[in-house]
Amino acid sequence: MSRPKINEQDKRTVQVNIRLTRGENETVNEYATASGLSPANWIREKVFTGKAPSAKLSALDASVYQELRKIGVNLNQATHKLNQGDFPKELRAIQLELMMLLNQILKSILHDRQHDQG
């Protein structure tokens, strides 16, 4: 499925450059990650609405999500190889590593949730 066509008047063709300190850049990146937006879209929403976009994920949830996403990509790649009949010797080691990562993430989530409730 192709991307929908954008009207000429809706295309973003003008670029505005700003300079930020390293601290400001880190702050914008953290806010953007927490709200699930790119830094440019976070700034655009802040400028045009006057409000900071609401955070969709806590910082921990965002980092956990990224780790789970990476694990999912690895699992998809391994599954694809298995479905093709390709069973590399190192697959068992990869599976064990992924299982350990999943267990660490689950423990982190449970610990974080218990910490927030306590």
Describe what you observe in this structure.
- It is a single chain.
- This protein has 4 helices and no strands.
- It is an all-alpha fold.
- The protein folds into 2 domains: 14-49, no CATH class; 59-117.
- Helix 1 crosses helix 2.
- The model has no long low-confidence stretch (mean pLDDT 82).
- Pfam families: NikA-like.
Could you give a short description of this structure?
The protein is mostly helical.
What structural class do you assign from the helix and strand content? mainly alpha
- Overall spatial form: extended
- The radius of gyration over CA amounts to 20 Å
Structurally, the number of domains stands at: 2
Hey, roughly how much beta strand do the residues contain? Answer: under 5%
User: Tally the helices: what do you get?
Assistant: 4
Report the biggest beta sheet as strand number plus sense, adding barrel if it closes. Answer: none
Helical residue percent band? 55-70%
| N-end to C-end Cα span | 47 Å
**Spans of at least 5 consecutive residues with low confidence:** none
H/E element sequence: HHHH
What do the pLDDT scores average to?
82
Q: Give the oligomeric state of the chains in this entry, treating copies of one chain as homo and distinct chains as hetero.
A: single chain
Query: What is the number of E strands?
Result: 0
Pfam families: NikA-like
Protein name: Plasmid mobilization relaxosome protein MobC
InterPro entries: NikA-like (IPR053842)
